[in-house]
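Narrative summary of target 7.
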Amino acid sequence: MEIEVTIEILTPIHLGSGQADVNVDAEIIHDALGFPYFPAKRFKGLLYESAVEIFEMFDLAGIPTENLSTLADLFHRESTSAVQLIVPNFYLLPLEEYKKFCAEWKYLQATYPNFFEPADILNAYTSIRYQTRLEKGVAAEKSLHNMRVLNSGEKFYGKIELLNGDAKVINLLALAIKNIYAAGMKRNRGFGKIDCTANFAAGTAEKIVADFFAKEA
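Modeled conformation, tokenized:
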């Protein structure tokens, strides 16, 4: 089963690459052409964290979980489950469109290197945010720090592949996707707010979640 997932960026987000240069202290992850993307490993980690939260919230609310897959079965934590969850990188366009888009930009960058550079593309999608540490209301010496953030309003697209998943797996996956609300650094400072939507064979994640709670009521 292929599940179309869209990640909408609601507030500026920093998905760190672990790199820096003379101009930027904390760079975001991007491809060789300069286009930001949402890494598969980050999203799968968010899915797992969200699924853990689902079980914690259900436990506190007294909601039964027998109609949900276990975490071990879906995420293979100390499990030999036959379920496979294949998560791709997420790009600024659906994959086939993105490949064509990149091919066109690769041609332009190779043909007109003085006009089209990866840095120009990156700058078109991002901005630099500065911050400093205050001591008694005054900026501390040498505390100025900056980081690049992806601007709000962008969307990332990708298709998750689910193999050998039953209704319980689909229920947990839909709930986990809808429960993801933030990613990246500085989440407690208003950065990284996101909204995830998904289309399953059985309907949207919203519909699956609504049907699940209707049955539990």
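The beta strands are 2-9, 84-86, 126-131, 134-135, 138-139, 145-150, 155-163, 194-200, 203-204.
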